Amino acid sequence: MAKVNIKINNIPIQVEEGVSILEAARTVGIKIPTLCYLKGITKSGACRVCLVEVKNAKALAASCVYPVYEGLEVYTHSKKAIEGRRNSVELIMSNHNKNCLSCVRNQNCELQTLCQELGVRDNKYDGEYTPSTYDEVAPGIVRDTSKCVLCGRCIDTCKKVQGLGILGFENRGFKTIVGPVFNSSFADVNCMQCGQCIINCPVGALSEKENIHDVVNALNDPTKHVVVQTAPAVRASLAEEFGYPIGTRITGKMVAGLKRVGFDKVYDTNFGADLTIMEEGTEFIQRFTNGGTLPLITSCSPGWVKYLEYEYPDLIPNVSSCKSPHMMLGAILKSYYAQRNNIDPKDIYVVSIMPCTAKKAEAVKPENVKNGVQDVDAVLTTRECGRLLKLYGIDLNDLEDEQFDQDLFGEYSGAAVIFGVTGGVMEAALRTVKEVLEKKPLEDVNFEVVRGMKGVKEATLDVAGHKVNIAVTSSMTYAKPLLDEIREGKSKYHFIEIMGCPGGCVNGGGQSLVSARLKNDNVDYKTLRANALYEEDIIMENRKSHENKQIQELYKNFLGEPGSKIAHELLHTTYSQKQKFKF
Fold first, then answer.
1. With CB atoms 3.0 to 4.6 Å apart as the test, which of 85, 132, 443, 449 could cross-link to 145 if both were Cys?
2. pTM for the full model?
């Protein structure tokens, strides 16, 4: 593309013709504030926070949508530009619920940061507020339109990342709000509950449905035996809640903190991940060798499973019947663990700390509740875990590393750790499937071909003399073409991993929030978190699920063998077509 000569704050630079003023300014280290803009997702110019002064122009310009041209001269921080931005923010604040001190986004809010930087202190435009909607019906997501700034980031995220588009602008003018069609609840439409809208919302208009106080009540109930488990991706993000750099692995400190909260047992969901590989790997081997329905698609992402039940119910036979790892461990805790410790399963309260809001919906899914007993009683996101620890006066910076409880479920493999990143489930499965079918140790357990943040990764592998075609994808926009091929009978694959969130659980809707400023600056936070998991995999003595000795003991003493009758009763589930709209 042709280069053009422009000036930004009297600095002559050359940039590609057609890029925005915002992007051009970033090339010379000039940061223009934004609110609605999110690189690769939204650039509408709607918020007017990125206003700049263009020489000889009659009005200020929104820099995120204003293309550069030869001879352009721009002033990004002139008095006129700064006053324009401040006025924009003051107008946004005039219709904003200002309960900042009690807001879940307090001190981590992009609008709050803008007010601080631009010196917005007074209610310059005080008046009537747009009628608001508060929706907390869905199990995973809460919507509060009184805090919405109409930036459109959630709308574009749902449409462009997940291909659903369940959110849109409702009404017109002063009455405009954002929500599902007819301003209905998230519970009444085909929402995945993935939470990608939450992590891209600049304010507190969208948040996870908080379950902290349910957990606190259980901890203070003397009749309850409270067990907590943590997903692999949490250790790669929780540190950010305590000021650590993105990608800091904090496994030992996390365990120490949870033990100080007072949980009776602290286990790692990685044990459940190893168990998942035993069941799912066996399921693939049986289908592949006996002519079963292929491709087999992984089932550990509840957001993806909800999407399946809404959009592709005809492909249910292709999806593994395995529960996700935390649900498997929950089922084992309320059966085998309960028996071993002579505890009534109804008195065991299982808490899962997850990088995911869809896990909240998964825990209460009717198919996962038997005789009124849930496998998992409460799900906290990574963000909620940070708030829980702070509620108990715990700062992870002050703690020494401690180990997960080692009895029964304390062992896990490196294969389980990488479940938290796109490609990790496939790699973990391949380490077991290939070794079991070939009846000899793997020379190299690293399957680099499935790693990385590419939308779709595919490969053909030699497994015991057979060609096995695999694919790995995350987010529904990338998954949809693969699903369409299966529906049309054109798929070449035997095994497919699908994760609901881009990059996998490291970028789950319940993970620590990464500001739009970092995202717009191309900070590769997903890879930084993923690297933390790969680093832990490398240092593990055992890197294969089927070599987990406690898993072997579980089958020997209780389950029998992978795919047994009792294993199916406890560790597998069913799916069904769900109604897209309930109004």
1. 132
2. 0.96
pLDDT tens, residue by residue, 103-149: 999 999 999 999 999 999 988 898 899 999 999 999 999 999 999 99
* Tokens standing for residue 487: 């529906």
| 64 and 139 both lie in a single domain | no
Measure CA of the first residue to CA of the last residue in the chain; give whole Å. 50
The vertex-41 CA angle with 137 and 509, nearest 5°, equals: 40
425, 279 contact by CB (below 8 A): no
The answer to whether 508 and 501 have CB atoms below 8 angstroms apart is yes
Question: Omega of the bond prior to 180 within 30 degrees of 0, cis?
Answer: no
In sequence order, what are the residues at sequence separation of 6 or more whose Cβ sits closer than 8 angstroms to the Cβ of residue 31?
25, 517
CB 352, CB 258: distance < 8 Å: no
Range of the domain at 217: 213-292+321-443+506-571
Task: Confirm if 448 and 461 have CB atoms less than 8 A apart.
Answer: no
Rounded to whole angstroms, the Cα distance separating 473 from 455 reads 6
Residues 158 and 61 in one domain: no
* Assigned domain for 165 exists: yes
Inside any domain, residue 344: yes
- Distance between CA atoms of residues 535 and 531, nearest Å: 6
Which of 453-470 are b and which e, b meaning 16 or more Cβ less than 10 Å from the residue's Cβ? Answer: beeebbeebebbeeebbb
- For residue 68, give the CATH number of its domain: 3.10.20.740
- Of 418, 400, 101, 395, nearest to 241 by C-alpha is 395
AA letter at 394? I
SS3 107: coil
Indicate if 268 and 401 belong to the same structural domain. yes
Q: Tell me the catalytic residues.
A: 280, 283, 300, 320, 359, 362, 367, 505
pLDDT, tens only, 303-359: 999 999 999 999 999 999 999 999 999 999 999 999 999 999 999 999 999 999 999
Q: Using one digit for the tens of pLDDT, what is the confidence trace for 271-318?
A: 999 999 999 999 999 999 999 999 999 999 999 999 999 999 999 999
